[in-house]
Write a structure and sequence with these properties.
The protein folds into two domains: 210 residues, 3-Layer(aba) Sandwich (Rossmann fold); 144 residues, Rossmann fold (3-Layer(aba) Sandwich). 34% of the residues lie in helices and 14% in strands. It is built from 15 helices and 14 strands. The strands form three sheets. A seven-stranded parallel β-sheet has the order 5-4-3-6-7-8-9, with helices on both faces. Strands 11-10-12-13-14 form a five-stranded parallel β-sheet, with helices on both faces. β10, α10 and β11 form a beta-alpha-beta unit. The longest helix has 18 residues.
Length: 380
Amino acid sequence: MTLWQFGGIAVRYLSCKEFGTHSRPVMNYTGARILEIGDHSYFRQSHPDTTTLLWTGHRPPLHLTAADYRDCTPRRLMQAMRAVRRGLYDLVVVYPHARSAWHPRCWLRALAHTPLQPLSAFSRGFGVGALRCFKFETPLVAVDMHDDFTIDRSNFFLLDRAKLYFKRELPVDAWASLHGTAHHDLPTARLRSSPKWQSRLTKLHPISLRIGRIDVGDSEGVFAAKSMDVFFAGNVESNSTLRRDGVEQLHKLAKKGFRVDIATERLSHEEYLRRMSRAWLAWSPSGRGWDCYRHYEAPQCLTVPVINYPTIRRYRPLEDGRHAIYYAPEGDGLADTIERALHDRQQLKQIALAGREHVQTHHVDHAFCNGILAASLPAN
């Protein structure tokens, strides 16, 4: 799609049966015209025919060809803004950076990755921040996918300009997202009573990671081939302390006779999925953020994820005992939870099947983007 293409919003109501008994009907905005600005390409991948992508990342996108995007140079951004003002887009989607574009780390990294394009490397990181200079009526939404639970000061203007601000690691207390930015500490009563900030925080909404569809085959065949009790693969030494403590409990379980598969080497994606599908449970602890791809990969492998209790507000969450199993990190909470879960393999089958349906309904491919569109665009 070029900057001057036209299109319309095609709204299709999907039945509650398609999306689970606990879901309301969801609209599929298949024709929504989208301008995407940032260092992710979710809409360009999900809605390629109706999405224009202006790229602001340090390096070129890995999953796209050169024809799928344009660097967000000042000239291209101005062209895009003229198209937005003419009503050629239904939604502007932006991905905030973790720090200001003026930070040397931003433009120096871009220059290192594309040294033959110095002007583009320096300027494209300013694309999102430059939106403060343009006025337009088209709805704008921000989608913050960073591991950080805070919102950088350079993105505060988006809390004013955006219709909604989706944040992956949105703290249970949304005020904590201003820690060290709007306030040097946790925001005090003075800030929390500010009408301006109260209005800004009403725009914060949780969003999950987006993941591709995984097919491991017929469910009965997958369950019959399970030969391990617990699987884990992930960085431990340079990651969260929760992982270090949990690995010790997995080793204790192995000494008690449980079949524990801990990958000590880096696995290919295919091998990772194969080994995970062989296990009844997959330990899925927090890393730098609470949300994790493994939360959504394990159910698609018909393996029940065992996750520490959440520290964030979640979008379409995996429910405890229905789609996943949650545990308390204190003491031997992980080991005790795993032992209890393994006593009832039939229940684990039901949780695994329900988890796969839930993930593939709400978190895979088009579902991620359509959830944002349904919340951001009017139902016509």
